[in-house]
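Board notes (copied after class):
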Amino acid sequence: MAQAVRRHQPAAFSRRGESLAGAAKDHADAPVEQSKGTGLGETLSLEEGLARLDGYITPRPLESWAGRVAGAGEIAQSFGVPRQTLNNWRQQKAIIGLLKGQRNLAYPLDQFIDGRPIKGLAEVVKIAPDDRAAWLWLRQAHGALDGQTPLDALKRGHVGSVTRIAEQDFV
């Protein structure tokens, strides 16, 4: 092996009588490049870190990322779905409810067809870590679905493929 290394040395090493192995050994502990700056900075407490993050966060209305949403009263009036049925569906993880404000729930309207949850929605909601993650995932185009959203795929009846992809993405 040493013969092979010596035989294929660059001219710069052979002129000075050095070997590649020797040059590599000499520079093994040297940094690839010199560091600049002061490093990562001070360590913050959790409270101070969260306070700083709050300064960077720009609040966005729920509708800007969730689409059209409605409260339980509006859904009861528009679709004829009693509030108790809506609450039961949510407790059974059959539908998605998103917090609007501190404690009010808003329900994305795209999850309903003719006043009922889309077939297969419950499977995704049960797999996802929470309702927000599930809804964001359902509305985003997915490469495994040829660029369509999982929500559109569910509406077209592709429950099995959407469920498999959700398991791959969330579990």
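Comment from the instructor: Residues 159-170 form the longest helix (12 residues). The beta strands are 69-70, 98-100, 104-108, 112-113, 116-117.
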